[in-house]
């Protein structure tokens, strides 16, 4: 597996873990603060955060071996789609009567921010070479 794919996979896995931890913590806090409505509000925020935080990362990982133009187009399109989906989720959430909006919003924002922080850390520490090394042969004028 190429270095790019390893970095994308690591980012996807760690983002999924961080969003899941925030979702579980939000559900527990929501349960104790507002009962079942708080729990389900946190679950809704978790779902929206998962779409926001993992959508583009999954597409980047799945298309990393394709032509660079295909990769850029797929990542750009997935970014636009996920932003639209999160906006639709926020609009739909406004009309749900039993939704605890602060819990929904807190889990959504914390999950999305954690995914961005994981991306920054993973890509800053990722070791992606500028060139791919290859073995030299006698046809290359060596030996």
From TrEMBL:
<protein>
    <recommendedName>
        <fullName>ATP synthase protein I</fullName>
    </recommendedName>
</protein>
<keyword id="KW-1133">Transmembrane helix</keyword>
<keyword id="KW-0472">Membrane</keyword>
<feature type="transmembrane region" description="Helical">
    <location>
        <begin position="12"/>
        <end position="33"/>
    </location>
</feature>
<feature type="transmembrane region" description="Helical">
    <location>
        <begin position="39"/>
        <end position="62"/>
    </location>
</feature>
<feature type="transmembrane region" description="Helical">
    <location>
        <begin position="69"/>
        <end position="92"/>
    </location>
</feature>
<keyword id="KW-0812">Transmembrane</keyword>
<feature type="transmembrane region" description="Helical">
    <location>
        <begin position="104"/>
        <end position="124"/>
    </location>
</feature>
């Amino acid at each position: 597996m190429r270095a790019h794919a390893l970095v994308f996979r690591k980012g996807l896995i760690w983002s999924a873990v961080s969003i899941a931890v925030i979702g579980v913590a939000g559900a527990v806090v929501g349960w104790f603060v507002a009962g079942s409505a708080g729990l389900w509000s946190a679950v809704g925020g978790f779902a929206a955060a998962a779409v926001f935080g993992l959508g583009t990362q999954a597409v980047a990982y799945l298309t990393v071996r394709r032509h660079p133009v295909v990769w850029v187009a797929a990542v750009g399109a997935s970014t636009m789609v996920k932003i639209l989906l999160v906006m639709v989720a926020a609009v739909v959430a406004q009309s749900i009567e039993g939704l605890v909006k602060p819990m929904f919003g807190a889990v959504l924002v914390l999950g999305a921010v954690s995914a961005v922080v994981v991306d920054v850390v993973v890509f800053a520490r990722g070791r992606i070479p500028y060139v791919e090394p290859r073995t030299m042969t006698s046809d290359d004028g060596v030996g």
